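Table S7 (text form). Paired inputs.
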Amino acid sequence: MAKARKKISKPVWLKYSESEVKDIILSLIKKTPELTSEKIGLILRDSYGIPTTRIYNFKISAVLKEAGVHRSADLVNLEKKEKGLENHLSKNKKDMKTARSLITIKSRLKRLKECLA
């Protein structure tokens, strides 16, 4: 049996409207385009005091998709990991565990790109 989700109501101390939050999200992505929706959520929570965007009945990724700038967090993280492993392997050519790990990361990256395309 699935757990019922609690309905989140807007706190009285929260002064941002739905359109203002969307504008903040878009301005953050314009400043630093490499941000993922997870990082934007952390910034909203820590800097602006917005606990979650579910209060306004939307998700950050939906706002980014509307603007056409959404990037999958899984894709970004795998690309970062691939770059780090390639850098390590260029310095340590005999590290076979890293070579094997790089192969599996490239495989996962390829499957993810096919799935997202």
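Next pair, protein 2 of 2.
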Amino acid sequence: MKKYFFLAGACIILSSCSTPESVSARIFGGSSQTLIFESCRAVSEDEFEFVFSSPVTVKSVSFYPYLQIAFIENGSSVRITLEESPQPGTMITVDLLAEDEKKNTINVLASLRSRNNRMPNLLINEVCTEYSNAAAGRKAEFIELKMKSDGNLGAMRLVINGNTNAAMQTIYEFAPVEVKEGDYVVLHLRAYDPASRDELGSDLSESGGMNSSPTARDFWVPGTAKLIHKTSFIYLIDQDDNVINALVISEKPDSWWDKEYFAQTANLLFARNAWQTAGENVCRPADAVISAGTTNTRTICRDETIDNTNSAADWYIAATSSATPGSPNNPKRYEP
């Protein structure tokens, strides 16, 4: 959500550029020649771009956390080069004052993440769509990831499109953290327990909360709203909106998607080669992993013994009491 504050002779814009989507602002009451801030992004590990509606000269700029500036290239597209690259995917706040040739000034306060060119190859490995409210403690739904290479998770985003989530809604954006090939990462989709903390350092037992793993890295989505359903589209994207990996699940195999954006998302993943179908040029519920039998302990598991095909053939429903967040998947399968 953007907030705009108007002062005599200046415009202050508070905006977020943490995703590569363009950010624009219109100054109400201004002329068609009003200076407008359009977008910002990290174009490389040590360079940021700020786009305006007309050429500007940067009068001042500061970063938090502090970053030393090496060079500023003015114009409609302002390029700011840093002396050193920040950690990949670091959240950065920028306070920039610019002026056009007519002496109109614009003050932009924006947040964005530094460029991460070291995102690991990874796979969605286990998904729990149901929560437990047992007396022993509430267990949240979760998504487990398995690293297929070394890398850094910073700025990677998880998207879930389900009954309550419209298309391209980011559920979680990862902070910078180093991972190794073979590591498991568990993203818990609710945070019931105040002890549920994201594990950003080397201590993998730091986080409390039900289903936290002492051997895997745990992360927690703030709040307690339900974010995943038995019909959902789960995918990870990078800073350019490229799909890293995806999983399509459907409660029923024999009906068309009951929401328009279900079909749109399914076909988007198919078009990007992130989810394969049975040979047609459209993705249908029958092409999804059928999730009807899942419970809090019967999770949707990837078969870790076979190569990834980006299709339902990679997946099975684990047997009752076979959920393994943060550990290799239990090969025992649910037999309805």
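The CA atoms of residues 58 and 98 lie 4 Å apart.
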